[in-house]
Amino acid sequence: MATSRFRDRADAGEQLGEALRERGIEADLVLAIPRGGLPLGRAVADALDAPLDIAVASKIGAPGNPEYAIGAVASDGTVWRNESAIRGTSADEAYFERERQTEMAVAREKAETYRAGRAEPELAGKVVVLVDDGVATGSTIRACLAMLDESDADRIILAVPVGPPDTIRELRSVADEVVCLQEPTSFMGVGQFYERFDQVTDEEAMAYLS
């Protein structure tokens, strides 16, 4: 499948919104993963005429290698464990639980900061679209999907502009539906599929929620 680069996150979000509309998806709520998911989430929410909120998770890194995810935890404590990665490291249960508690606090604080006093949305019985700016290993997305799965949401749709085929296939077994615009076999990182992929600051990301 031929791939092309998105101009920026807004362009990717507009294309995602169009793809969701073409599939006839009607969402009760769009949840974006901060920070990079919020520019896309705003475009998708506008396209679907749905309210926008956030889903927050924090990666659990391996001992001595914090960038290598052995799991992730959502702001409500819902955890996703990468069992094969855990077995390949020196992480024991005590380490994992300690890091889970630490990263849960990070995710919770981030969610509270972004919501700025607003209540968490009610998800039970809702059709929810989860949006991010792309997926590589998908650790934080998996934790967010696990959180949504426990929320009694009626239907969970993951919408991302780009991701490697193996990861997207795995995510299709977790979400009710996955909309991914590009699944390139040559995948080194999400940023390679954007012409502009600047870091999004917390202030910039939060502005999309107003």
From TrEMBL:
Keywords: Glycosyltransferase, Transferase. It comes from the Archaea. The keyword Transferase applies. Transmembrane segments: none annotated. Residues 20-188 form the Phosphoribosyltransferase domain. GO terms for molecular function: glycosyltransferase activity. Gene3D superfamilies: 3.40.50.2020, PRTase-like. InterPro entries: PRTase-like, PRTase_dom. The keyword Transmembrane does not apply. This is Phosphoribosyltransferase. It comes from Halodesulfurarchaeum formicicum.
